[in-house]
Design brief:
alpha+beta, FAD/NAD(P)-binding domain, Alpha-Beta Plaits, Glutaredoxin, seven-stranded mixed sheet, 27% helix, globular, EC 1.14.13.127
Length: 529
């Protein structure tokens, strides 16, 4: 078990979000204990799609190569109308601006095993399977965590942690133990979710069939796996009940023949659109489904949980190392909650639009889209999924600017690094910490800004623009990707957070007066830097 209880983080839950959080913390040298009540990682293929932000997070955690080995780079979702004809196929614009495919099918058991194997190789990390948390006692110095190990005759143990991350799913015991409620609604309709093997579908996109007689979804995966989701009619099934094979066989009949041993999972669900009332309770934090649950129609349930981990874990590591003050952890909820709520609303809205059982409404819907999609701009809006909530922070660790965008995620183009003479993804150049970019600014201005706001660990990089040579370390555009990313920041100094969100941007000589107050890792800045 890790040695220093004053810096230990306990992660409750070894699902994808908990394992990702542990990997992110381990990558920053934080000792972690993962407690999972089940004896093994899950063998149920629950989540089935990873987006580009999630893959970028795995890159930061040092595990992306393992994850890339279990996905298929996907190309979005195709929507079909009531008559079975394709209406539109949505996909991200190319090239992928975050450096990874936009939407990639995978099998959750494969992901959990890959993350688990990675953690077993990391120093300072312990994963205890079959360890159920039975008590949490937060105090001013941390949390006392009590757990029972099922494999040791029910032996109970207690460990002190500085922080606890509740990543234990929609029925979170951590959330319940702390008395945190959820706000939103649970949907009345029941859905049958069937995961099968030996399937003939080889499309690298999901298929949403908006047939009012039986709305359904088909999501092909790797190695002959496929997920089918069907809206159930009254009397066909209830959540928690056993699903007879003849029901599965009947619903799959229009699409394929299936044998009992080809069914990996058949479960009846009611979908939820719920958000926890609080995400931080002193030293305890809620992540993933413990903090928010949403219908699957936008494919963002797991991806939202991974965003939670990406936002929180670097902050915890910085607090434990003394680089940030404890109060910075309040920004986790203020930054993540608005986007999670917007994503829940999007998921519910897509469900209402695509999965209606009202034939007249479905007819009007199809006619509407047939008309508006004739316009190239409107078609691009839908095809490139520009209707997704913007992942942007307005509060928290950001400093407002009137001259450039802040609170947005910087993309990850391939760049030429003059320091190494190599072509690399931007994140590999910037490293794992803070970064200060000088976009078309002079070397003296960049040096002055680095002295004012940087720390020895801050990467300081000039960005070459306007096809001009620069002296010292710089990154140079190769294919237009870098130029497109930095165009809004021309002539600016740009401070980028470890999670690659832009914290501040300013012209040389006009350092924001509230920068040091918001970013407490730095001392008060000299005027005119």
């Amino acid at each position: 078990m890790p040695n220093d209880p004053t810096t230990r983080v306990v992660v409750v839950g070894a699902g994808p979000v908990g394992l990702t959080a542990a990997a992110l913390l381990a990558a920053r040298g934080v000792e972690v204990l993962v407690l999972e009540r089940n004896a093994t990682t899950s063998d149920e293929p629950k989540a089935i799609s990873l987006d580009d932000e999630s893959l970028r997070t795995f890159q930061a955690a040092g595990v992306v190569d393992r994850v890339l080995g279990i996905i298929v780079p996907g190309i979005g979702t195709r929507y079909y109308g009531r008559d079975g004809r394709a209406v539109v196929q949505v996909r991200a614009a190319r090239p992928f601006r975050l450096g990874h495919p936009f939407k990639s099918p995978f099998a959750q058991p494969d992901l959990e095993r890959a993350l688990h194997r990675h953690l077993l190789s990391q120093p300072g990390v312990e994963v205890r399977m079959g360890a159920e948390v039975t008590g949490l006692a937060p105090d001013a110095d941390g949390v006392e965590v009590t757990f029972r190990e099922h494999g040791h005759a029910g032996t109970s143990a207690t460990v002190r942690a500085r922080y606890v991350l509740g990543c234990d799913g929609g029925r979170s015991g951590v959330r319940t133990a702390l008395g945190v409620g959820m706000t939103g609604r649970s949907h009345a309709e029941s859905w049958l979710v069937v995961d099968v093997v030996g399937d003939h579908h080889d499309e690298r996109y999901g298929m949403h069939h908006a047939d009012p007689a039986r709305p359904h979804v088909i999501m092909p995966g790797r190695d002959g796996r496929c997920r089918y989701e069907f809206l159930l009619h009254e009397g066909e099934g209830e959540p928690g009940g056993e699903v007879p094979f003849d029901v599965v066989e009947r619903l799959l009949a229009p699409h394929r023949r299936v044998e009992p041993d080809q069914v990996e999972r058949a479960v009846t669900y009611r979908f939820h659109g719920l958000v926890a009332d609080r995400w931080r309770i002193g030293p305890v934090f809620l992540l993933g489904d413990a903090a928010h649950m949403m219908p699957p129609f936008a494919g963002q349930g797991l991806n939202s949980g991974i965003r939670d981990a990406a936002n929180l874990c670097w902050k915890i590591a910085a607090v434990l190392s003394g680089g940030l003050g404890e109060e910075v952890l309040d920004s986790y909820e203020s930054e993540r909650r608005p986007h999670a709520q917007a994503t829940v609303r999007l998921s519910e809205r897509l469900g209402r639009i695509v999965m209606t059982t009202d034939s007249r409404l479905a007819r009007r819907r199809d006619a509407h889209f047939a008309a508006v999609l004739r316009d190239p701009g409107t078609r691009a809006f839908y095809e490139e999924m520009r209707y997704r909530p913007e992942h942007r922070y307005h509060d928290g660790l950001v400093v407002a600017s009137t001259s450039a965008e802040v609170g947005v995620m910087l993309g990850q183009p391939r760049v030429f690094d003059t320091a190494t003479g190599t072509v690399r993804p931007l994140d590999d150049v910037l490293g794992s910490g803070w970064a200060l970019l000088g976009v078309g600014v002079g070397a003296d201005d960049l040096a002055a800004a680095a002295a004012a706001v940087g720390s020895p660990e801050t990467a300081v990089v000039r960005v070459a623009v306007d096809d001009r040579f620069v002296t010292g370390r710089a990154i140079v555009d190769l294919d237009g990707g870098l130029d497109a990313e930095v165009a809004p920041y021309a002539g600016h100094l740009v401070l980028v957070r470890p999670d690659r969100f832009v914290a501040a941007a300013w012209h040389p000589g006009h350092l924001p007066g509230d920068l040091s107050a918001v970013l407490s890792f730095t001392a008060p800045a000299p005027a005119g830097a």
